[in-house]
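During the reporting period the student researcher (J.K.) took over the structure-prediction task from the postdoctoral fellow and processed the backlog of single-chain submissions. One of the processed entries is reproduced below for the supervisory committee.
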Amino acid sequence: MVIDRYWLITWVTYGTWLPGDERGFVSQIRDANGRRTIHNIPGTPRAANIPALQCYARSLLKSDPIRLSLHQAETLLEQFQETSYYRDWLLLAVGIVANHVHTALGVPGDPEPEKILGDLKSYGSRKLNRRWGKPESETSWARSGSTRKLPNQDAVLGAIRYVIDQEYPLLVWTAPVPELDLAGVIIGSS
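J.K. obtained the following structure tokens:
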């Protein structure tokens, strides 16, 4: 297997991180001059804390926000491993929290990262829907996600460490990573 690119890919569950959120968000908003702007350049501040926008976004939800269970996290891990196997990806780490998912992985060639994100989300959704039924919202996930290219080994190891160090994980899994003294770890909590 030849790996050409490494990515940290993150996405949230439906309805759990809305535009206007005080934690920051990436969405089109109007600046002080009334022009539409989007704060999505890595390393720059995101838009944050617009309660009226968050309230409006919440009013548009088709259902309550989706929160994952430990059993759903275990099902998603199996699907991410299967998808990676069939796509010839090198899955390095997965961290699943009740309201979001992180994956660190390597891919052959140079596919669009949004395609990788889409494959993980869509195959994960199919597996969840088969086992628990389709959610009222029609989807388990927010519309997009974050795709961060990992340019070197230090960045890859840093991304794996970031995935491992998630607060309140349902599940954390790593492939064997000798540089971090990891031998394929699964941590689950209910």
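The committee noted the following: DSSP finds four helices and ten strands in the chain.
J.K. will present the remaining backlog at the next meeting.
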